[in-house]
DNA sequence: TTACCGATTCGCT
DNA sequence: GCGAATCGGTAAC
């Protein structure tokens, strides 16, 4: 199976998002190998996208997004979760694709150990933080080159996907009019939730 | 230096 | 369906 190259991913994040659907992400660790088929992604573009982490310029946190395409950008949210992105666009121009959900196609046993709360196998990587969970991705994998032959996390071209669906991004309150969330039909696609103030009502 | 709040998940009702 | 857990980046004081 062909590993994706930096050139494959050095394109507009929206195009990269569609390209990544059906692709397979593989992580290797002393514990074993887990491989996931991506079924849901979101595009984030710096500069004109207020929802992007790099909208307001370069900081130590988003530094990886300003680097070459094909690298892994991992960030910490809500004090307890990690989310993974694949850097897109060309060197020096920030952009990324958020990996939202996938199907575990190899290493099911290890995936179940890493996510014991999952009630079914399709739930194992259903959601961005669950996806990083089954793959064992955390801060240590930030900046990994997914296109390197010997990387601990790699991205491979998958089988062609049937029909790509699209809609507004999850949990994002701005730019609701741009349908930059893409997914294919799968039980592992996460539920849509609107952005803005909803779950945070302190009285 | 401090305060606010988010690209979420889980458990309980 | 709703609220808690939890912490680092960012902006404002």
From TrEMBL:
Enzyme class: hydrolase
Top-level division of the source organism's lineage: Bacteria
Coiled coil feature spans: none
InterPro entries: Formyl_transferase-like_C_sf, MPG, MPG_sf
EC code(s) of this entry: 3.2.2.-
Keyword line: DNA damage, DNA repair, Glycosidase, Hydrolase
GO molecular function, one term: alkylbase DNA N-glycosylase activity
Keyword DNA repair carried by entry: yes
PANTHER family: DNA-3-METHYLADENINE GLYCOSYLASE
Matches recorded under HAMAP family: 3MGH
Family from the record: Belongs to the DNA glycosylase MPG family.
NCBIfam families: 3mg (TIGR00567), PRK00802.1-3 (NF002003)
Protein name, entry field: Putative 3-methyladenine DNA glycosylase
Annotated source species: Kibdelosporangium banguiense
């Amino acid at each position: 199976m062909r590993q994706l190259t930096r050139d494959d991913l050095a394109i507009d994040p929206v195009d990269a998002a569609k390209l990544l659907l059906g692709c397979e992400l593989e992580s290797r660790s002393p514990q074993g190998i887990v491989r996931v088929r991506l079924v849901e992604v979101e595009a984030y573009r710096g500069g004109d996208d207020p929802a992007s982490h790099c909208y307001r310029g370069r900081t130590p946190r988003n530094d990886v997004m300003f680097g070459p395409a094909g690298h892994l950008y991992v960030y910490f949210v809500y004090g307890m979760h990690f989310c993974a992105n694949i850097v897109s666009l060309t060197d020096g121009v920030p952009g990324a694709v958020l990996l939202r959900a996938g199907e575990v196609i190899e290493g099911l046993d290890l995936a179940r150990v890493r996510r014991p709360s999952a009630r079914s196998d399709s739930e194992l990587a259903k959601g961005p933080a669950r996806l990083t969970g089954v793959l064992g991705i955390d801060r240590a994998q930030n900046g990994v080159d997914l296109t390197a032959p010997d990387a601990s996390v790699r991205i491979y071209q998958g089988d062609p996907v049937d029909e790509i669906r699209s809609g507004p991004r999850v949990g994002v309150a701005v730019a609701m009019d741009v349908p930059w969330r893409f997914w294919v039909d799968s039980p592992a696609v996460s539920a849509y939730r609107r952005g803005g103030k909803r779950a945070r009502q302190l009285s």
